[in-house]
Amino acid sequence: MARPHIEPFVDRDVPFKKMTLPGFPKGMHYKMLSLDTDDGACTMTCLFEPGYRQPPGMSYTEYELFIMSGSIKVGEKVWGPGSYFFVPAGIAIEELSSPRGATGLIFYNYGEPSFIESTRDHKNAERNRFAAVNSYDDMQWTSTNFYPATAPGCMVKILRFDPRTQGFTFLYCMTPNFWQDNISYHDCCEEAYHIWGTSWMMQFGDLPTGGYFWRPPYINHGAFASKLGILAIGRTDTQLYNHFHFNPWTNIEENRDRAANRIMQWKPDLYKWINTHGHNHPIDFEYDHGHAHGDMPHHHGDGHVEHNHKKKRRRR
Amino acid sequence: MKFIAHKRSRAVQAWLKKEMSEQKNRYLKIVGEQEALTPKRDKWISDFLYRIQTRGVHVHSNQMRKVAPEEIPVKPKRKFKVVF
């Protein structure tokens, strides 16, 4: 993924813009939070005007929608604040309308925003992966269950978990007077949006309601504190591991080097095997080889970590 | 399937180009704002390094340990930045 480090950015400081991309009905507005310069994947705050109507249709990329205020109607069902949708690429959802208006967040995960009117799923769409839940009414807070874990007072609701990448989408909260005195970084990209409340990080200062960040891997963040508490939604693209430490001045290279060294300590046999020539193209027997578009990046030992395979021409 | 290959129209390409340009400006603004925060941040760091010696540093959940003075890192001479 190629998004710059956007941290912090407060969307309350900028106005909504009309969505003008082809296919989208009138009445949708957005604020761009971050955009992948390679594939157009992006995260946006969105606003549906009262009376907004979107016919049944699909997107070329999987996307996630979270309703923050107001309500939308999908088919006959009304979804209010806290509603979360995970929509795989090519899944045609029913008519989406918002009689009284709504605001939310949209995450387009693997390509630019797209909407194609259709009452039928794309032939390759994975309908079984579609998910919809009201996270405020139908889910409860749990501890983070990571090791090492964040300080008590930070709790989560897991909205989506990808078993292959271990990337996940989650609501998180901090209780009033939350504090955590360490510095953290992760091997994954991490993004978050403050639905309500202000938290503080030693590097970036206050992140208020409407505050957002997209943080690439290995960037220091923390210590942390929140006087009155927060409610936020967060996402990672792969597994989140808390590499805690207390050196405020380390840089990305040093943090990545430390993470690699830790893998060497934790999984020495695997680490050695991966580093041996010819073993840099591991295959997971539970999945296809991995050349399908949108699958995990991999390399063939030529230093190109991410690449596409051109279709071979058949000999006649 | 996470993505369906398709051809981008000119309108989509133009939209992306405009958004990328605006994002570049947003990024530069953030870098400037964060540099301006340096004096405050230096104080926050100083306070943090004091607290982890007196109250402790979080290791896991509510487990904390006090950091010895000789463990406290020294600020390197290179330029320090928080936005990459």
The proportion of residues forming helix of chain A, as a percent range, comes to under 10%
Enumerate how many helices of chain B there are, as a single number: 2
Number of strands of chain B: 2
Q: Note the beta-strand portion of chain A.
A: 35-45%
Order of secondary-structure elements of chain B: HHEE
> Could you tell me which chain pair has the largest interface and how many residues each side has?
A-B, 58 and 47 residues
Strand order of the largest sheet of chain A: 1-23-20-25-17-16-15
Q: Can you give keywords for this protein?
A:
heterodimer; A: 316 residues; mainly beta; seven-stranded antiparallel sheet; 26 strands; B: 84 residues; mainly alpha; 2 helices; 2 strands; 52% helix; 8% strand
Structural description of this entry:
The complex is a heterodimer of chains A (316) and B (84). With 316 residues, chain A is mainly β. Chain A is 9% helix and 37% strand. Chain A contains 3 helices and 26 strands. In chain A, the strands form 6 sheets. In chain A, strands 1-23-20-25-17-16-15 form a 7-stranded antiparallel β-sheet, with no helix packed on it. Chain A has a 7-stranded antiparallel β-sheet with strand order 2-3-4-12-7-10-14. In chain A, strand 8 and strand 9 (77-79) form a beta hairpin. In chain A, helix 2 crosses helix 3 (268-275). By secondary structure, chain B is mainly α. A two-stranded antiparallel sheet of chain B has the order 1-2. The longest helix of chain B has 27 residues, at 10-36. Chain B is elongated, with a radius of gyration of 22 Å. The chains are: A mainly beta (316), B mainly alpha (84). At the A-B interface, strand 1 and strand 3 of A face helix 1, helix 2 and strand 1 of B.
